[in-house]
Amino acid sequence: METLTQRNIDYDRSNFSDNELVDIYKRILKPRLIEEKMLILLRQGKISKWFSGWGQEAISVGTTMAMNKEEVILPMHRNLGVFTTRDIPLNRLFAQFQGKMSGFTKGRDRSFHFGTMDYNIVGMISHLGPQLGIADGIALSSLLKKEEKATLVFSGDGGASEGDFHEALNVAAVWQLPVIFTIENNQWGLSTPSNEQFRCKQFIDKGIGYGMDAFQIDGNNILEVINSVKQIAESIRERPRPFLLECLTFRMRGHEEASGTKYYPEGIQEEWNKKDPVVNFELFLKEEGLLTEEMIAEFKKDIKEEIQNGLDIAGEEPKIVPDTATEIKDLFKEHNQVVVAPESENKSEKRLVDAISDGLRQSMERYPELVLMGQDIADYGGVFKVTEGFVEQFGKDRVRNTPLCESAIIGAGLGLSIAGMKAMVEMQFSDFVSVGFNQIVNNLAKLHWRWGQNADVVVRMPTGAGVAAGPFHSQSTEAWFFHTPGLKIVYPAFPGDAKGLLSAAIEDPNPVLFFEHKFLYRSLREDVYDDYYTTEIGKAAVIKEGEDVTIVTYGLGVHWALETLEKDASISADLIDLRTLAPLDMETVIASVKKTGKVIVLHEDVEIGGIGAELVTQLNEACFEYLDAPIRRVASLNTPIPFEADLEKNFLANARFETVLKELLNY
Ligand SMILES: Cc1ncc(C[n+]2csc(CCOP(=O)(O)OP(=O)(O)O)c2C)c(N)n1
Hints:
Blueprint: H1 18-43, H2 57-66, E1 73-74, H3 80-85, H4 90-97, H5 130-144, E2 151-156, H6 163-174, E3 179-185, E4 188-189, E5 192-193, H7 205-210, E6 213-218, H8 222-238, E7 243-248, H9 268-273, H10 277-287, H11 293-316, H12 324-329, E8 347-351, H13 352-366, E9 370-374, H14 390-394, E10 399-401, H15 406-418, E11 422-426, H16 437-444, H17 447-451, E12 457-463, H18 478-482, E13 488-490, H19 495-507, E14 512-517, H20 518-521, E15 525-529, E16 541-544, E17 549-553, H21 556-567, E18 573-577, E19 580-582, H22 586-596, E20 599-606, H23 611-623, E21 632-636, H24 645-651, H25 654-665
Parallel strand pairs: 1-2, 2-3, 3-7, 6-7, 9-10, 9-11, 11-12, 12-14, 13-14, 17-18, 17-20, 20-21
Antiparallel strand pairs: 4-5, 8-15, 13-19, 16-18
Helix pairs in contact: 1-2, 1-10, 1-11, 2-8, 4-11, 5-6, 5-15, 6-15, 13-19, 15-16, 22-23
Bound molecules: thiamine diphosphate.
């Protein structure tokens, strides 16, 4: 590409002193020189992949210079300049790229896939859009704490086609959150041009639909970027509200170095090279008499030395030696639960729904930083009335009705947690968690393991069948998450456990999915302690003791088993209610199976690839020599769950449980 000798960008320097302008130059030069070095290293085979931000540096550097240091920025894959402008030591940045220990993820995630709250940066996951909901949560925390802070989050024009973009902007607008949604419109998403990505004339037209102000600026003009972001940030610190800021630019080097640029129209790179953000600014400062060739050479020399020094330090660092125990330990933030006993013995009869409501209310009293979010949970009290009366007691700031935006809201829960708060997100029905799935399995579950940031979020999941509600209001969804390391899954079967376990889940700084059986909400009563208390997470309960068989189950299965045992008093069984599915209390289960020699696993969820499959495998490995019969598993049919009452009955595991139990006993 030809070197520019003529300036093609007009700068308005009226807000900047000479020194500031020179400082800006040094700031924008640094990521460019790192880019140059990375390309050399790539050619030498010393790094494997590089997403280049060449030509887009003014956006990363300008936005970061405009924001206050204590404000959070959520960058994407072309925002090297955010990291350098926040002054992350280059040796750590390079160690991160090389998967070394002094990076930010202990070698567990690559390139820019990390965050560090030491620098108020929350990094991306590959899925792009989920960043935006997290920004909402961080901004919500600022709003609730009246901190007068703005949050800035990036998206590409391509990533903005994701549902997460729509959800996050919509939530930010409805809640008037101080977020600057910065769109780097480099006009391509991989090989797809903008006109195959969206239909509106210009990107900012999308702002109208969300009811937020939107500006388009020249993303290659660093002074324009700084001025615009400063102005917006100042304004929204004072009067919180979101902004859409489109920074027009061009992706000079294609998607990533290996994928080439053959699909670009002829001459487009040359055209955009004329608007190079670094060289144009350099030419401008020379014209202004602020920069000489000698100064440029000196700055380049200094930065190159810094880069080489950083590479040397990172290069000398030994490769990570895998340690399995550490890999597993780091899944969760350390939390040694100390079970809290109720202050008095006072009890009153509570339905499951009342007990859950009670635990939630007392947790709200205990944790002023706890925020509840969900559809219709405020004045309406939630569809199952768990939060009835909460608005009166805790106010609308902490008991928040949400738009229908599961993904953005779970993301916002994570944002609240990153900002030091606690979040509880209610799914209206656990079936609907499928549209928030990505945030749970890829963000909540992996965050602590990736960069040590915990996700203090409880997702409440009204679940299960027995209410003839059909395939989308009756599913058992626990196995969707059971397979994902990094999540705790709690599934109580009784009101007393539900209250204690929900309180424990909220206390726990890690992500917990809390399943509540809808059929049991109002059909089950128990005397429950009135005071606040917690129950141990990860501990099964032996509900009945016997000699001949072990029944392992959870949720509604516990009640099916109880009914079956009540019908036939001759059956002598250990009945184990798992209560927590992740982590599984295998110790209790194994001890029982070793005693009885026979075991049947029962669950409401469909059979295939379910929790039963895991239990059977682990029991086979641990108890084979103690078994007097093959392990049996009873689950619901491997079909979706039908609506009609008799069809539903036939679908559910209970239709076959008694027969299989008797077969096992007679084996
Ligand atoms: C959910 C998801 N779909 C697809 C991809 C693959 N992918 C990675 S980056 C990218 C293009 C993104 O375009 P844009 O948001 O405009 O950012 P740019 O790369 O142009 O900076 C695609 C398709 C992905 N990472 N995540």
